[in-house]
Amino acid sequence: MxxxxxxxxxxxxxxxxxxxxxxxxxIQAWGGISSALNDGANQIEANEKTxxxxxxxxxxxxxxxxxxxxxxxIQNTGEFTLNITDxxxxxxxxxxxxxxxxxxPSVWVPGSIVNFTIQGNISLSTNDEIYLNVVIxxxxxxxxxxxxxxxxVVRIV
Length: 157
Hints:
By secondary structure, the protein is α+β, with helices and mostly antiparallel strands. The chain is built from one helix and eight strands, in the order αββββββββ.
């Protein structure tokens, strides 16, 4: 009978050791899940605070067929400072070369306006209605960088 008590004690100690290991693994896994959820929440918040609007007249986009370029004006309507050089523009599905034009602010702060020259190897005609897609990114922020995109139907004149 004394032998049964010793085996019960061994099983109890072994069970406690296994339970300790399992709980440590579960706590570590929960820490990883919690960190991933926190990173996702930070990214969502950064995206919500990143915004811009086309303030050029979308029905009056003056396309120069000789140089294959036009100018658009975009306002930072979000809460974050935007990265001017990382602005991406697609016109009628074609990737365009984007550069700042005119008065060049060094920082695209909320509320400020930036003029862009967009140029690409595409052929457009007067009265064409095409899609203008713009993608903007906020400055590098810790822990997340916001992104925003918008699409407008524009008319070439």
